[in-house]
Write a structure and sequence with these properties.
It is a single chain. With about 575 residues, this protein is mainly alpha-helical. The chain has 18 helices and 8 strands. A 4-stranded antiparallel β-sheet has the order 4-5-6-7, with no helix packed on it.
Length: about 575
């Protein structure tokens, strides 16, 4: 009943939110000139540079939304009983927060006397970045919040995120093309703060639901692959020309290095030197996070390679060691290990950007330095600016900031973003756990789709049909007709296929049925398996624990069998 009330509140909240946004969109939101048919230069100046740039960015904007809807969605399906919720909540939150984020960034850019929010696809993208930040936070809380709590934290986080990003990018002049600071670190520690507030929960009650299956892990790995492939678009979208080309190169090389190092470290830390699926699903992506803030800088291939190696090793260590330590010591439960994938690599990415800015100079970058780090450009009407503009007219006046000052700005925005995210996360954690407001989940309700979705009925399990001992053939040998018996086997399905089983009497009065290899079965099932059936034909079949079944039948073994050997 508690979650039924929460579902009703969620529906009502969505109706109110959508209605309010519909009014605001109708009153305040309009096309920017680049999308306005009445804007004559769009057609007169053919090809219009602004329109051309926006249209060139559209495929990458779609890449990023594939990351949001499919990449994040499938990545979060690793819990065996939470697949519907992971994908569906990702979808609805991405849609709602993107709508809301467009308005938030628009409000911050309003000028006195001009109260119209002009929208291009870049503004839609900014709303998507708000959604990405909320989804990172959701990764900490998967299975532990209901849709209403997720909606409330998403609205609060979007407001705080947009203000923090506006201060960092527009006012302080920080650079963070791929969001290491403003997206990954911010979203991660907003979620970590909420997780610390709710560390009083007893997660042992639902420990069985926190397990994975082969299927859920494979779907999660699909999300990893989608994120991996599209990550260079994420890091390169907001920069142009040679800077975008560098961002692609740096991101790819860093991802390659983090992937290889993840497998190395997973084997080193893993039980019996085996790879851990959690590491492969997550830590392989850390290379994309760590180079985000410096993706467009002159990191050089060797720098990107080293950064990716560090990210893969640190992230894997986090999953194998740090996460378990925090859970044991302070009961901090991080469902998706967000601290290891987005948090720590995000901080390292911010530090890397400060290091790269401190070394930036005109001899390395050429005049293009002042296109990437605009605040380092000379001041208006200075002879130095005139010299640079004679060589590269697109350079605009800056404030004459030095490389060291820009490095300090990077450190400052990193510290501010972490502080703001943690404080806002703690406050949000208390708000969403107010019972009468959000009707939070009980410990026994966690990690379960059934709390929110109408699920299909489980497939019935057939009863074993064991042959009777009085069936003999013409020569007095046991003739066991083909029957259906059920066992579980390594997650492979081969229903409706019979296999030959030979029978041999054992000294203890048991019969041993040995299945012969059959080309009709999956190769992993070819090895002989033995099934012991006692003298009363009661089944003694061990259940390995997988969810799939295979069928087997019996044929005349040609062996004598006495169910009562003592006689």
């Amino acid at each position: 009943m508690v979650q039924k009330a929460a579902q009703v509140k969620f529906t009502v909240a969505c109706i109110i939110l959508q209605a309010g946004m519909a009014v605001l969109y109708g009153v305040m939101v309009r096309y920017a000139p680049s999308a306005d048919s009445a804007h004559t230069p769009n057609r007169r100046d053919s090809p219009n540079k602004e329109v051309r740039q926006l249209l060139e960015q559209y495929p990458m904007i779609i890449d990023i939304h594939v990351m949001l809807f499919a990449g994040f969605g499938f990545l979060m399906t690793f819990l065996k009983n939470y697949g519907y919720s992971a994908l569906s909540f990702t979808m609805v939150i991405t849609a709602l927060i993107t709508e809301f984020g467009v308005l938030c960034f628009g409000f911050l850019r309003l000028e006195p006397g001009h109260y119209i929010i002009e929208v291009t696809m870049l503004e839609v993208l900014e709303g998507g970045l708000c959604a990405a930040t909320v989804l990172i936070t959701f990764g900490v809380l998967i299975g532990k919040v209901n849709p209403l709590q997720l909606l409330v934290l998403g609205i609060i986080e979007t407001v705080v995120f947009s203000i923090n990003a506006h201060i960092g990018y527009s006012i302080m002049g920080a650079i963070d093309a791929g969001g290491s600071i403003f997206v990954h670190a911010f979203g991660a520690y907003f979620g970590v703060a909420i997780g610390i507030v709710t560390k009083w929960r007893n997660y042992d009650v639902t420990s069985e639901r926190q397990n994975t299956t082969n299927v859920s892990d494979m779907f999660s790995l699909l999300g990893t692959i989608l994120l991996w492939v599209y990550w260079p678009s994420f890091n390169g979208l907001l920069v142009y020309e040679d800077a975008r080309h560098r961002a692609y190169i740096n991101t790819y090389i860093s991802l390659l290095a983090s992937t290889v190092c993840t497998f190395i470290c997973s084997s080193i830390f893993g039980d019996e030197r085996k790879f851990n699926p959690v590491d492969v699903q997550n830590a392989t992506l850390a290379g994309g996070v760590i180079v985000g803030a410096s993706a467009d800088l002159m990191l050089h291939p060797y720098g990107a390679f080293c950064a990716g190696c560090v990210a893969g090793c640190v992230s894997t260590f986090g999953y194998q060691v740090i996460q378990g330590f925090l859970e044991d010591v302070i009961n901090f439960h991080d469902s998706c290990g967000v601290n290891n994938l987005h948090g720590i690599p995000g901080i390292l990415g911010g530090l890397l950007s400060a290091l790269m800015c401190s070394m930036a100079n005109e001899s390395t970058y050429g005049p293009g330095l002042y296109l990437i780090l605009g605040n380092m450009a000379p001041k208006e009407d200075s002879p130095e600016l005139a010299r640079l503009q004679a060589d590269l007219p697109s350079i605009e006046a800056g404030i004459g900031r030095t490389a060291q000052e820009q490095a300090l700005i990077q450190l400052a925005v990193l510290g501010i973003s972490l502080a703001v995210s943690i404080v806002a996360g703690i406050i949000t954690g208390f708000i969403i756990n107010v019972e009468f407001l959000c009707s939070g989940m009980k410990d026994s309700e966690l990690f379960d789709d059934a709390e929110f979705f109408v699920l299909p009925d489980p497939e019935p399990t057939p009863e074993p049909n064991i042959p009777q001992p009085n069936q003999t053939n013409a020569v007095g040998k046991v003739q066991s007709p083909p029957v259906q018996a059920i066992s579980t086997i390594e997650g492979y399905t081969a229903e409706g296929v019979n296999q030959n089983v030979t029978m041999a009497a054992q000294p203890n009065g048991h019969a041993e049925y040995r299945r012969a290899s059959s080309s009709s079965f999956h190769p992993s099932m070819m090895a002989d398996r033995r099934i012991s059936i006692d003298s009363s034909y009661n089944s003694n079949i061990p259940v390995p624990g997988a969810a799939e079944y295979y069928n087997y039948g019996y044929e005349n073994s040609g062996l004598n069998y006495n169910p009562n050997p003592a006689t």
